[in-house]
Amino acid sequence: MLYDIRNEQQAAKTLERLTGVPESYWVIEGIKNSTRFDFADADKDIEHIISMSGGHFPKLEELELIVTHITTSNNRCISIIRNGLIGLVKAYKLPESELRQFLETNDVEIDVDSNWMIYKDECYDISYGKCPIDHESREYAAWSVGRKLYYDFAVCGFLSLNEKNIYGGYVHRRPEILSDIDDLLGTQLQEQWEESHRAYEVVFKVPVYETVYNGWDSDDEYERVMRYLVDAYMCVFTGPDTQEILCRNGVEIMPEHILECNEFNLWV
Questions:
Q1: CA 18/CA 61 separation, integer angstroms
Q2: In the prediction, which pLDDT does 256 show?
Q3: 204 in helix, strand or coil?
Q4: What is the DSSP code (8-state) at residue 85?
Q5: Which residue from 16, 167, 199, 233 could staple onto 264, CB 3.0 to 4.6 Å apart?
Q6: Taking each helix axis from N to C terminus, what angle separates 8-19 and 221-238, rounded to the nearest 10 degrees?
């Protein structure tokens, strides 16, 4: 069952799909409950609506999430359309890698297999091992580059987006790793990237069991199902918020599971 809360209308349809309760009933009951100052009892509202209307709770394993990945590109995300959303190391090795081409144009070479980065004839060890104690050191700056490249590689996306609640990684402006490279090399690659690239939203679908909801991963199925129902319910009546979700480590989104790729203008 598709779980889509990108806007109020899709959220209402999602509630109907998941519970069997008509979306019109959700809207009517939600309007009654919206006179409260907050939705602290949203879970109780949902239980009541499902019980009174003869609905049912979905099984967690049945959910297939619609997720929006935010990225930047100067060629309309050709690499992602062809190869899907894959690990950063694997993507970096592709012939059409925009990041590698950009770095090499700016005299930065990365040997991802040997854990070395070269800039102006100087070599930097970017292997991701034990975190250096001194966070102001060159070793720590190099370690941070390695962390982004070799560890922080999970596909990140959003169940919903709000124009005022901007994701702190500013992925709509540049790849996060460029910030770490600038810190290490004293360059201004972030600014150069922003001048020549546009933001895009890549919409894909993924089974719920291949994701971790922003670090929240309870073993209780009822709690997890209720979390998704509450988010859909809140979206219907308060509008979408920025809700982050991560694919599990090693999970890649293949091209056939990508539904849309459009320019992204929400976080301007």
A1: 12
A2: 98
A3: strand
A4: B
A5: 199
A6: 140
Tell me what the pLDDT averaged over the chain comes to.
Answer: 93
- Burial of 125-144, coded b for 16+ CB within 10 Å and e otherwise, reads ebebeeeeeeeeeeeebbbb
Alpha carbon distance 21, 190 (integer Å):
48
Task: Count H helices and E strands in the chain, helices first.
Answer: 10, 10
CA 49, CA 134: separation in Å to the nearest integer? Answer: 55
CA dihedral in degrees (82, 213, 194, 118; nearest 10)?
-80
Give dist(CA 115, CA 113) in Å, integer. 6
Show Cβ contacts of residue 15 under 8 Å, excluding neighbours closer than 6 positions.
21, 23, 26, 229, 232, 233, 236
The backbone torsions φ and ψ at residue 169, rounded to the nearest 5 degrees and listed phi first, read -80, -10
Mean pLDDT of 81-88: 95
**Is 0.85 surpassed by the pTM of this model?**
yes
- Helices marked H in 136-186: 138-146, 176-185
Cβ–Cβ under 8 Å, residues 233 and 45: yes
Q: What mean pLDDT do residues 148-153 have?
A: 88
What residues have CB less than 8 Å from 114, skipping those under 6 apart?
A: none
Which position has the token pair 């360059």?
187
DSSP 148: I
In the 8-state DSSP scheme, what is residue 61? Answer: G
